[in-house]
Structure formats: structure tokens, C-alpha cells
Amino acid sequence: MTIGVKASHLTVVPQALAVAGAVMVLVWCIHFRGGLAWESSNKSLIFNIHPVLMLIGFIILGGEAIMSYKALPLKKEVKKVIHLVLHTIALILGIIGIYTAFKYHNESSITNLYSLHSWLGIGIIVLYGIQWIYGFLVFYYPGGSTGLKSESHPWHVLLGLFVYSLAVGNAALGLLEKLTFLESSGLAKNDAEAYLVNFTAIVTILYGAFVIFTVFSRPAQDDSSYKAI
Amino acid sequence: MTIGVKASHLTVVPQALAVAGAVMVLVWCIHFRGGLAWESSNKSLIFNIHPVLMLIGFIILGGEAIMSYKALPLKKEVKKVIHLVLHTIALILGIIGIYTAFKYHNESSITNLYSLHSWLGIGIIVLYGIQWIYGFLVFYYPGGSTGLKSESHPWHVLLGLFVYSLAVGNAALGLLEKLTFLESSGLAKNDAEAYLVNFTAIVTILYGAFVIFTVFSRPAQDDSSYKAI
């Protein structure tokens, strides 16, 4: 199933959304929430690393990894390496981002893992890791048989998009959760910060939607090795 | 892109999840939250209609509508009518469900439309309505040309899945939002009700995922009119 739009044209939109989302989460965490710190007596500054790494590192770089395989006008072998490297960086930054949430909880004596956001987050990073390992072994090194590769390919794409959609949804869930906490501690519902957080979630969801559309668009070039999905 | 599982086999899982989700939201709203009422001095009972209609009416029936077109072992013309009728009911129940949230807010003097959940909800129901109108006109009555139909088909599927994914994500967002409000008003984070609400969200997300998988699975029968997607 392919929609009649060229991937290389379509990606202009998600790239603009990625820049907007990255700027928004940085403005929120640095300007409104006081900045980022790995060690600080103000524990909130440790927490602030979490949304920044999860959005810019995990969601945006993970989305770039997905789009790169379809949209870049390069040879399949080169795109495969770019796809793998970007997913590797996204996974590592995602793990560090999750670690900062635990670090903040532990240093502030807040219970870990009570919320839906945290449960889904753990599930998503584990699935992302499994998907990475399976993809590496079958498609990169040592590489499966041609039969196994072509059998696995649609599953790799669909499960990858499933995990990615969950990640995008969970980012929106996390932004809303934090905003609700801030509003219970006195932030006005029509405060500029409340709008910024909600719009960051909307930009994130739109970015995720365009990443997924890219997968179903026409590839960047007529590549004989390209298999229509 | 088709995965090697028959739709009619795959749908066993989402049907079980649909029953579980429907029971869970009813137990939550009736047993834990005091019941459902269209008119009551206890305004919370009016609110309780909202999650019940949105989950059972909009998400579950909408999902059944999506799956019916792929999984039922019937002729294309029959499946099309079932697909249309189920989506129509889902859309109507979704609109009534959204209306009850406004009714509850108005009768309890709570501001409307300040949250991400509400903004996304309005956007989703409008997109769902547009998708319904376009689908009705092009695929049902008066029906577009064969060229328009085959050109529109992948867009109809992908935009439909996009709107449906947003609806599922927004249901999880709504459940989390309500739970956070309840927890700010004293509900313990490890209370049975908190677990019930979180697990309802997880069941909803899994149901949505299996609905989407069904679209990419093998159709129920070898139907000559079936177009692989």
C-alpha cells in the first residue's frame, strides 16, 4: 500500500515539526522549568533531562532513523547503516532518558513505576531493544537467509511502527502527566506554559504521524532493490 | 505489505480484548464511580457516561468496523455495508459521548476545552466525520469513478488508521487525566481503582494495535475483488 507522494517531498513537513518540537521542549525545560542538570540539590533540574532526551533523542532521532531508510536518495546498503546507527543512538539516549526519571525519583524519594506512563515506557524501551537486536541479527550481521529476510521484512516494519506509535503516544501521555502535576501545584490552566506543553504534545503526535506516512510514501528514487510495501 | 497471518484467526485476540475493555470500563464507572445517569444532582454520574460511550461506542465499535472489512468471510458488497453501518454507530455514540463531557462541565461550572485530551478529541471526531463523509460519497453513494476509488483507497485506509490510532491514544490520555485528578483528590496510587484504570488503558492500546494488525493481515477468503494493501 503506497500513497502517491514522494518520500523526499513528504519529509519536509516532519523535519520542520522535529525542529519545532526540539525547540519547544528546550524552551519548556530551560526557560520555564529552570534548566538541566545531572547533579543538583534542585532535583527538578535532574528530571528536566528526561523530556529533553526522550523527545529529541528517542522520538525525533528514532523518527529520523525510520524515515532515512525510505527518504534518502542513497544506495540500500548505505541507508541500512544510517537506519541502524540512528536507531542505536535513539535507543541509547532513550535508556539514559529513562534512567534520569529513576534518578530524579530516587533522589526525591518518589515511588518508581506507579503510573501508566512509566509502565508503557518500560515496555516500549524493551520492545525497541528486542526489535533492534532482531533487526541487527537478521538484516545486518550475521544476516539471515534471503527467505528469512523477506519473511521478516513486513513484521519488522509493522512491529517497528507499532513500537514507534506507542513511543509517540507515551510521550504525549508523559507531557500531560507532568502538566497535570504542575496544575495541581498551582500552575494556571491558561498559563503560557500549559499551552506550550500541550502544543509540544500536539507537534510530537503530528511528527510521529508524518514519520509513519513517510513509510507508506513512494521511495526517494527508483531503486531496483526497493521492495514495495 | 501483508503479514502472514489470516485476519479471521488474528481477530480472536482483539475480540477478547474488546470484551475485557468493555467489562473494565463498566466496572470502573458503575462499581467504583457510582454509576451512570443522564440527569442527576450528582454530576459525576453524568461524566461517567463519557468513558463508557467513548470506549465501548467509539473505540471498540470503530475497531470492529475496521476489522469487519478484512476479517469477515463475506462478499465485498456486504462487508462494505457492515463497515459503513458500524462506523456510523461509532461516530454517533462518539458524538454523544463528547456531548456528555460538555454537559458535565457545564452543569458543574468547569471550563470546557482547556486540556490536550479535549483538543485532540475535538480534532479526532471532526477528522472521523470527514473520513466518514468522504468514504460514503466515494465508495458508497453516489460512488466515485473506478480511478478515483483506486486512487483514494490507500489514503482512506491510512488516514482512517491514523485517526483511529489518535482516538486510541486519546482514550489512554483521557483515562490517565481522570486518574490523575482522582489521585490529586486523595485516591492512593496503589489503590485497586488506580490499577483498574491503568490496565483499562493498556487493554485499549493493545486492542487498537491488534485492530491495526488485522488490516495488514491476510483477508478472510480468497476474494477476487480483494485488493492487496
TrEMBL record, chains A, B:
Domain (Cytochrome b561) ranges: 13-216
SMART domains xref list: B561 (SM00665)
Primary residence: membrane
Record keyword Transmembrane helix present: yes
Coiled coil location: none
Membrane spanning stretches: 12-33, 45-69, 81-102, 122-143, 155-175, 195-216
GO terms under cellular component: membrane
Protein name, as recorded: ascorbate ferrireductase (transmembrane)
Gene source species: Durio zibethinus
Gene3D superfamilies assigned to the protein according to its UniProt record, in alphabetical order: 1.20.120.1770
UniProt keyword list: Electron transport, Heme, Iron, Membrane, Metal-binding, Transmembrane, Transmembrane helix, Transport
Membrane topology (UniProt): Multi-pass membrane protein
Subcellular location: Membrane
UniProt cofactor(s): heme b
EC top class named in words: translocase
Reaction catalyzed: Fe(3+)(out) + L-ascorbate(in) = monodehydro-L-ascorbate radical(in) + Fe(2+)(out) + H(+)
EC number of the protein: 7.2.1.3
Highest taxon of the lineage: Eukaryota
Alphabetical list of PROSITE patterns matching this protein: CYTOCHROME_B561
Lineage: Eukaryota, Viridiplantae, Streptophyta, Embryophyta, Tracheophyta
Keyword Iron: yes
A molecular-function term among this protein's GO annotations: transmembrane ascorbate ferrireductase activity
Gene name for this UniProt entry: LOC111316464
